[in-house]
Specification:
Endonuclease III, domain 1; 2 domains; mainly alpha
């Protein structure tokens, strides 16, 4: 294969069989090693949406304690709108990022005014909510509504790049071939476990720096391992 053809291949969608094999390995790993967080124990769309908004640019372990405290006080978007902003701000303060409070208020307002206080069950309506993009929409649909919806975050991009030898832009989560791969990955039953498995595997094994290749269940089919780990770093 010449260089042009090789580069084209690295920017295309992998064979379906390879994607399904990756999915099988990841879901099996997740069943034994998945992380335990309170928002993964509910199918309440509002709780999952709020959790994902809390998780934006924040580590999951930081969010866990705040999540439980938050929902002891505020169980619906209506309660957010009728509460003292200063109290909510103080509760969220350990998470940092002051814009988060405004997003919560704007989302709650949109849910009450346009959706009867309910979280939409389709991607386009979810993406019209303030502060909600494709990733949060996909997670909510996958976890809360048990839909076979795709998710792409930095962990997913990194695993796809390494395992399949993909090339991506700096905004890999927006690349069409990455999204197409994610859609195939989540196109069958139990997309929830498959998606969470990718996220957890990227957060605990396939790390951005010093990945734990010696503990990796994917290393025998991984292009990153084959090419002396030069694909991503």
């Amino acid at each position: 294969m010449d260089m042009i053809s090789n580069n084209k291949a690295k920017k295309s969608v992998p064979e379906r069989e390879r994607i399904i094999l990756l999915r099988t390995k990841i879901t099996d790993w997740f069943s034994k090693n998945g992380r335990d967080y309170p928002w993964r124990k509910t199918d309440d769309p509002y709780k999952i949406l709020v959790a994902e908004m809390m998780l934006q640019r924040t580590k999951a372990d930081q969010v866990a304690g705040i999540y439980n405290e938050f929902f002891r006080e505020y169980k619906s978007p209506e309660e957010i709108l009728h509460s003292d902003k200063a109290i909510i701000r103080k509760l969220l303060q350990p998470l940092g990022l002051n814009w988060r409070l405004e997003n919560f208020i704007e989302v709650s307002k949109a849910l009450v005014e346009s959706h009867n206080g309910k979280v939409p069950d389709n991607r386009e309506e979810l993406k019209h909510l303030p502060g909600v993009g494709d990733y949060v929409a996909g997670i909510v649909l996958s976890l809360a509504f048990n839909k076979n919806e795709w998710v792409v975050d930095s962990n997913v991009v990194r695993i796809f790049k390494r395992y399949f030898g993909m090339q991506t832009t700096k905004e890999g989560r927006r690349d069409s071939h990455v999204i197409a791969t994610a859609k195939l990955f989540s196109s069958e039953n139990n997309a929830k476990e498959a998606n969470l498995g990718l996220i957890d595997f990227g957060a605990t094994i396939c790390l951005p720096k010093k990945p734990k290749c010696n503990k990796c269940i994917l290393k025998y089919g991984c292009e990153y391992e084959k090419q002396d780990k030069l694909l991503c770093e």
